[in-house]
Design goal:
The complex is a heterotrimer of chains A (about 325), B (about 425) and C (about 170). With about 425 residues, chain B is mainly alpha-helical. Chain B has 21 helices and no strands. The chains are: A alpha/beta (about 325), B mainly alpha (about 425), C mainly alpha (about 170). Chains B and C meet through helix 1, helix 2, helix 3, helix 4 and helix 12 of B and helix 1, helix 2, helix 3 and helix 4 of C. The structure holds sodium ion (2 copies). Chain C: This is Tripartite ATP-independent periplasmic transporters, DctQ component.
C-alpha cells in the first residue's frame, strides 16, 4: 500500500504524500519540491497534501532515500542519477563531460524531449521501481581551485575532489589531475587546508556551501550539467485514479520551465555574490571556446570508457541515440 | 504513539537493559504505529548511521589511546605534569585535572581518560591523604574535559548530526571552554587542599624536571600533531586520528619498545570491543531518529516547546535543558545524534552560531553524564574503580556547581568558544 | 556437549579476530590513503568503502562478543542498588528480552539483505555488490541473541549474579 488515503469530511478522498529531496531550503531541488507541493495542493482544492523533506530532515543518505522510494515509503523524490549509478549504471551518462550543448536552454530542451532519456533511460529506472517523470538541469558545473584552471596543463598534479565514481575519476585523470574521492562532510575543511586543491559543482551549490570562501579561483567551465530527476514510485503512481495522475503529469510539465528559471536566477545571483564578496576574493574566469575545445578533446574518449566499462548493449544504444539527438540540436 | 514509545524506553532504561535495547524496542513500537513502513528500513538506517567517514575518527583515536596506555606514553605525561605542579598546594589534584586535559587532547574519549589517568592518579591522591570520594569525583569530572578538548568525540558526533559544520572548527572551539573548566577545577583544588590541610609534596629539582621533560617530549608531540595538523590543514580530523595511531605505534613500538608487533592485535581487540559497544548505539540511535522524523514528531515537538518564533537565548536554554536531562539517562553520543537534528534548524533560524550551538550541546552532554542521579560517567567510574554507585557520587556536588556556572557562562558569552576561530 | 564447547571456542576466536582486524584494517586504510596522497599524489579510491565495510562488520559482529564480556553500555543505577533477589530476577529477565529484540532485528536485517540482493546494486568505488556490506548484520544479530540467551542460562544455572557469561557481578 502506497501513500495514505482517507475519506474527507465531504466524502471526497484526501491524500497525504511525502516528497524527499537531496537539498536544503533555498537550493534548487527543495524549492522545486515546495512549489510542486503548493501547486498540487491548490489545484486539488486542498485534497492533496505533500510534505516536503529537505536533506537531513529525514536522516539518511541519498541512496537510502532512493531505496525508500522504491519501497513506496516515499511517494516522490528528486534523485540525482549520480547516486543511483550502482543500480542503473546508464544513469552515469550525465557524468560525461562536454556531452550536452553549451547552451543551457538547448540542453534543457533535449532533457525534455529526448527519447533516449525519457523512454530508454526512464524504462531502465522503472525496471528498478523508480519512475522518472522529468529530467531537469540545476545548472552547469563549474570548477573551483586554489589555482587558476584554464588549460589541461593546469590540472597536472591537481588534487581534484570527486565523487567515488570510477567514471568521474577517469574523466579527471584524462585532464592529468589526481582525482581524490572525499566525503562531503570533510570537503570544506579539506579545501580550506589544502588537503585537496579543487572541486566541481553548480554555482548555487558552491556559494551555499561557502566553497568560494576557501578557494581563490573559479572557472566558468560549463563542462557538464548537474541533472536531476523528478521521480515517483511506479506502483503508487499506477494505482492512482486517472484524474489525479493527470494532475501530477500536468504539474510536472508546468514545473519544467519554472525550475529552469529558478536555477538560472539562483545561479546568476549567486555568481554575483561570489564576485562581490570582497572579504573572500575569488578570481572568476570564463573559458573561451578554444579553451573549452582543449578539454573537450580529452573528454570525448571517456565516452569509450562509459561504453566499455560502465554499461552494456542497452546503454551503448542509449548513448548513440542521445548523441544523435544532441547533434540534431546543434 | 509518543507516550507508548517513551514509556517503553524509560522502563527498559531504568531496569538496566543494555542501552541499545530501549532504542531498538522503541523503534519496534513505532513500527506498529507506522504500518506502511517496511521494517527493513530500520536496518538500512542502522547501517547508514555508522557509515560516515568522519565517524571513523572515533575508533582510531581510541586505538591510539589504547596503544599509549599499554605503553609508556600516559605515564610519562603524568610524570611531566607532576614534576612542575605536583608540589603546589592541591598539587596532585591539579595534576590530575591537567593530566586529564592533556590526555583528553589525545584520546577524545572520556572513558579512555578515566582508565588511563584515573587509575594511577587515584592511588597517588589516596597516598597523600585525599578522601576516596573526592578523588573519584575529581577524576570523573576532570575526565569530562576530554569531551571538550580536541579531538573530541562529542564534537565529531555533533558535526555528523549538523551537516554544514566543520569538525575542525568545532575542535578549535572546544579549547576555550575546556580550559575554563580546567582553571575552575584547579582553583577549587587549591582551596580544597587548604581547607583539608593536605600535606605538600616534595618539589622536583630542575635537574629532575629536565629529565622528565625530555622523556615527555615525544608524547607531547600528540596534541601538537593533532591540533596543529588540523588547524594548519595538513589533514582532516579523520586523517588526524589515523596519524595519531601511526605516531603512537612509532613511539611505543620503535622508540620506547614497550610493545611488540604481536601485541597489536590484542590492543586492537580491546579497541574493537569499545568501538562496537559505542557504534551499536550510534546505529540504533540513527534508526530511531529516522523513524521519529518519518512520523513527523520533531516538528511537532519543537513547535510545542518553543513556539514559532523563539529568540536565540530561549533556544539555547531549552537546548541546554533537553541535553542535560537526556544525558542523565542515555549515552551522550546517542543524545547528540537524536536531539541535534531536532533543534538545529530552529536554533539556526533564531540566529545561533552553529559552532557555538555545538559547544553548548557537547558541554551539556558532558555535564549531564557526570551528574547524579543518572549519568554514564558515574557508571563507568563505578565499574573501573569497583565502587558502589553511592560512593562514586558522594563527592560530586562542588563540581556540579562549578560546571553549572561554566554552563551559564558558555551560553551567555559565545566568545569563550569562538575567540580562536 | 564437547562438540558445542569446541564450536564455542572457535566462535570466540573468530569474533576476536574479526573485531581486532577490522580496527587494524581501518587504520591501514586511513593512514595509507594519507601517505599515498602525500607521497605519490594519488588517493586510494577504495579507502572509504573498505573502512565502511570494516566498521559495519565490527559493529554487528561485536554485539555477541560485547555481550559475552558484559561490555554493552547500560544505565545500571537501579540494578546496582536493588537487593539480591531482584537483581537475580533481572539478570535472567533482561537477557531474555534482549535476545528477543535482537532476533526481531535479525529478521529485519535479513529482509534488508534480501532486498539488496534482489536490487543488484553495486558500490560506487569498488563496484562490488552492496549486499556484501549487509550480510554480517543478520548474522551479528543472531549470534548476539544467542549469546544473551547464554547469559541468561548462566544465571539460571549458577547461584551468583552474572552480568555476562564471562563477568560476575562485582558487588
Ligand atoms: Na575565495
Ligand atoms: Na578530547
Amino acid at each position: 500500500a502506497c501513500g495514505s488515503e482517507s475519506a474527507g469530511t465531504d466524502g471526497e478522498t484526501t491524500y497525504d504524500w511525502r516528497f524527499a529531496t537531496e537539498e536544503e531550503p533555498g537550493q534548487v531541488q527543495y524549492e522545486y519540491a515546495k512549489e510542486f507541493a503548493d501547486l498540487i495542493h491548490e489545484k486539488s482544492d486542498g485534497q492533496i497534501n505533500i510534505d516536503v523533506y529537505g536533506f537531513g530532515e529525514l536522516p539518511g543518505s541519498e541512496v537510502d532515500q532512493v531505496e525508500q522510494l522504491q519501497d513506496g515509503l516515499l511517494e516522490f523524490a528528486i534523485v540525482s542519477p549520480g547516486f543511483t549509478g550502482g543500480m542503473v549504471a546508464e544513469g552515469q551518462v550525465f557524468a560525461l563531460q562536454f556531452l550536452f550543448p553549451d547552451d543551457q536552454e538547448k540542453t534543457q530542451e533535449i532533457l525534455n524531449t529526448s527519447e533516449a532519456l525519457n523512454t530508454q533511460l526512464a524504462g531502465m529506472y522503472e525496471a528498478h521501481d523508480i519512475k522518472p517523470l522529468a529530467f531537469f538541469t540545476e545548472g552547469a558545473m563549474q570548477w573551483t581551485g586554489n589555482r587558476e584552471l584554464r588549460t589541461p596543463e593546469d590540472f597536472r598534479g591537481f588534487k581534484m575532489r570527486t565523487q567515488e565514481s570510477p567514471l568521474i575519476m577517469e574523466s579527471y585523470r584524462a585532464y592529468g589531475a589526481d582525482p581524490s574521492p572525499l566525503s562531503w562532510s570533510e570537503l570544506y575543511t579539506s579545501l580550506d587546508r589544502g588537503v585537496v586543491d579543487g572541486q566541481e559543482n553548480p554555482i548555487f551549490f558552491i556559494e551555499d556551501a561557502s566553497f568560494h570562501e576557501v578557494q581563490d579561483h573559479m572557472t566558468i567551465s560549463n563542462h557538464n550539467n548537474y541533472v536531476a530527476m523528478t521521480t515517483v514510485n511506479p506502483t503508487f503512481y499506477n494505482e492512482l485514479p486517472e484524474d489525479v495522475r493527470a494532475l501530477i503529469d500536468e504539474t510536472v510539465e508546468e514545473m519544467q520551465p519554472r525550475v529552469f528559471e529558478m536555477q538560472k536566477e539562483m545561479n546568476e545571483s549567486y555568481l554575483d555574490l561570489i564576485k562581490n564578496d570582497t572579504d573572500n576574493p575569488t578570481e572568476v574566469i570564463e573559458l573561451t571556446e578554444e579553451e573549452r575545445e582543449a578539454f573537450r578533446e580529452l573528454a570525448v574518449p571517456i565516452r569509450d570508457f562509459f561504453r566499455d566499462e560502465v554499461v552494456g548493449d542497452e546503454g551503448r544504444e542509449m548513448l548513440e541515440l542521445l548523441e544523435q539527438e544532441i547533434a540534431a540540436h546543434e | 504513539m509518543i507516550a507508548t514509545m517513551l514509556i517503553v524506553m524509560i522502563v527498559l532504561l531504568v531496569m538496566g537493559f543494555p542501552m541499545m535495547v530501549p532504542m531498538m524496542a522503541a523503534s519496534i513500537v513505532l513500527l506498529f504505529f507506522l504500518p506502511n513502513v517496511n521494517s527493513m528500513f530500520v536496518v538500512q538506517q542502522m547501517m547508514e548511521g555508522i557509515s560516515s567517514y568522519v565517524l571513523l575518527a572515533v575508533p582510531l583515536f581510541i586505538f591510539a589511546a589504547d596503544i599509549m596506555s599499554t605503553g609508556k606514553t600516559s605515564q610519562r605525561l603524568l610524570d611531566f605534569v607532576g614534576a612542575f605542579i605536583g608540589h603546589l598546594r592541591g598539587g596532585y589534584a591539579i595534576t590530575t585535572a591537567a593530566a586529564c586535559t592533556l590526555f583528553g587532547s589525545i584520546s577524545g574519549s572520556t572513558q579512555a581518560t578515566v582508565v588511563a589517568i584515573g587509575t594511577p592518579m587515584r592511588k597517588r591522591l589516596l597516598s597523600v591523604g585525599y578522601k576516596d570520594s573526592s578523588a573519584i569525583a575529581l577524576i570523573i569530572n576532570a575526565s569530562d574535559i576530554a569531551l571538550l578538548i580536541p579531538p573530541s568525540i562529542g564534537m565529531i558526533i555533533y558535526g555528523l548530526a549538523a551537516p554544514s559544520v566543520s569538525v575542525g572548527d568545532l575542535f578549535i572551539a572546544g579549547i576555550g571552554p575546556g580550559l575554563l573548566i580546567f582553571f575552575m577545577f584547579a582553583i577549587y583544588s587549591y582551596i580544597h587542599a587548604k581547607i583539608y590541610n593536605i600535606p605538600l609534596a616534595e618539589k622536583y629539582s630542575w635537574k629532575k624536571r629536565r629529565q622528565v621533560t625530555v622523556k615527555a617530549l615525544l608524547p607531547l608531540g600528540f596534541p601538537v600533531i593533532i591540533v596543529g595538523g588540523i588547524y594548519f590543514g595538513i589533514f582532516s580530523p579523520t586523517e588526524a586520528a589515523g596519524i595519531s595511531v601511526l605516531y603512537a605505534l612509532i613511539l611505543e613500538l620503535v622508540i620506547f619498545r614497550t610493545i611488540k608487533l604481536p601485541d597489536i592485535p590484542r590492543i586492537a581487540l580491546s579497541t574493537g570491543l569499545v568501538t562496537s559497544a559505542v557504534f551499536i548505539l550510534v546505529a540504533a540511535g540513527q534508526a530511531f531518529s529516522w523513524l521519529i522524523s518519518y512520523a513527523r514528531i520533531p516538528r511537532a515537538l519543537t513547535e510545542s516547546v518553543l513556539g514559532t518564533d523563539p529568540t536565540a537565548l530561549q533556544v539555547l536554554i531549552i537546548v541546554a535543558i533537553f541535553f542535560f536531562i537526556g544525558c542523565m539517562f542515555i549515552d551522550p553520543i546517542v543524545v547528540i545524534l537524536i536531539l541535534t537534528p531536532i533543534f538545529y534548524p530552529v536554533a539556526i533560524a533564531a540566529g545561533v552560531d552553529p559552532i557555538h550551538l555545538g559547544v553548548v550541546i557537547v558541554f551539556q552532554a558532558a555535564l549531564g553524564s557526570a551528574t547524579p542521579p543518572f549519568g554514564v560517567d558515574i557508571f563507568t567510574a563505578s565499574a573501573v574503580f569497583n565502587k558502589s554507585y553511592l560512593d562514586v557520587i558522594k563527592g560530586t556536588p562542588p563540581y556540579i556547581i562549578m560546571l553549572l556556572i561554566a554552563s551559564v557562562l558558555i551560553i551567555l558569552f559565545e566568545e569563550i568558544s569562538l575567540f580562536l576561530l | 556437549m564437547n562438540v558445542l564447547r569446541t564450536i564455542d571456542r572457535w566462535l570466540v576466536k573468530i569474533e576476536e579476530h574479526i573485531l581486532s582486524y577490522s580496527i587494524i584494517l581501518i587504520a591501514i586504510m586511513v593512514v595509507g590513503n594519507v601517505l599515498s596522497r602525500a607521497i605519490t599524489g594519488s588517493s586510494w579510491a577504495f579507502s572509504q568503502e573498505v573502512s565502511r565495510f570494516a566498521i559495519t562488520v565490527a559493529t554487528f559482529m561485536g554485539i555477541s562478543y560485547a555481550a559475552r564480556k558484559g561490555r554493552h553500555i547500560s544505565m545500571s543505577a537501579f540494578y546496582d542498588l536493588a537487593p539480591f533477589p531482584i537483581r537475580k530476577a533481572l539478570a535472567i529477565f533482561i537477557p531474555v528480552i534482549t535476545a528477543i529484540v535482537l532476533f526481531i532485528m535479525s529478521i529485519f536485517a535479513y529482509q534488508y539483505f534480501m532486498s539488496l540482493v534482489s536490487s543488484g546494486r553495486v558500490t560506487t568505488a569498488m563496484q562490488v555488490p552492496a549486499y556484501l556490506f549487509a550480510v554480517f548484520v543478520p548474522i551479528g544479530f543472531v549470534l548476539g541473541g544467542i549469546q544473551f540467551l547464554r547469559n541468561m542460562w548462566v544465571n539460571i544455572r549458577e547461584k551468583e549474579v552474572y552480568l555476562a557469561q564471562d563477568k560476575k557481578d562485582y558487588s
